Amino acid sequence: MTTEVKKSRGHLALIIATLIFGLNGPFSKILLSPGGITPEVHILVRFVGATFLFWLTSYFLPSELVRKKDRYKILAASLLGVLGNQGIFALGISMTSPVDQSLISTLGPIITMILAAIFLHEPITLKKAGGVLVGAIGVVFLVMQGMQSGQSSALGNVLCGMAMLCYTLYLTLFKDIIDRYSPITLMKWMFLISTVITMPFFAPAFVHTAWRSFDLTFYLQLGFVVFFSTFIAYMLLPIGQKALRPTVISSYNYAQPVLTTSFALLLGLDRLTLDKVVAAILVFTGVYLVTRSKSKADLKARKRDCSYIKT
Q1: Where does the sequence pass through the membrane (predicted)?
Q2: The domain containing residue 246 runs over which residues?
Q3: 305 falls in which pLDDT band (50, 70, 90)?
Q4: Domain count of the chain?
Q5: For 264, phi and psi rounded to 5 degrees?
Q6: At what angle do helices 3-31 and 216-224 cross, to 10 degrees?
Q7: Which of 31, 99, 183, 311 is the most buried (most CB within 10 A)?
Q8: What is the C-alpha to C-alpha distance for residues 16 and 44, in angstroms, rounded to an integer?
Q9: Local structure of residue 33 (DSSP, 8 states)
């Protein structure tokens, strides 16, 4: 498979995952509203459901042996990429609004760019920095226009920021095992570890939940969060992570507020204004600039080509 084909597959996987995550925030907020489930139950249901689905899928695929020295890495990766990211997200979104959460998610590319520069020695090119800046301006512009009256919980916003930090640390520090193992192998172990850790603490809340009081719509939304937002999305993310650089991966977070607005328009919950159009243009311009930036390998290759021409 050529590099361009791998990159195309990576972008397609992240586009679908981003569409799913665009609905995950609003649905999770509904599930965690008063009269719904607690963050502990939300976390446990996602972990148990994803563990079952990933292990079930693995039985139909060739088995992949995890090297002994990578087991501790997978344990640490699960603490950041699953338990830290999804667990803290559930606590944060229960205290704040999906709009605020989508704004905080735009910190991802900035954090990732810094971490990639430190740990992976990724070059911070002018185009990349400009793309992050333009995209961030667009998202801030969009979210500020859509904010309703009232204040979100400061603690909820801090927790959402911590969840984003956990995930950016995961995709930056553990790119070696992301590249080495298939998405199914990696995810089945990471979710199993997270389930084992949380089960003793969150099982009582699950047992005491009044499940019979919820209607069909509630269960459909919960099913979406478990099957699509957890299983499908987390199966697609490693495909993008194997083919694309960390800063490119996180740049897709910019599309989430735009998608949230689009879903609201389709449902008749919002109206299209010039402000939203301008914000969307800024967001996708930023994504384009980041995705078109050169990696360290690209810059080295270009330097070799130039040296060859000069001689």
Answers
A1: 12-31, 43-62, 74-96, 102-120, 132-148, 154-174, 186-206, 218-237, 249-267, 273-291
A2: 3-309
A3: very low
A4: 1
A5: -65, -40
A6: 150
A7: 31
A8: 24
A9: S
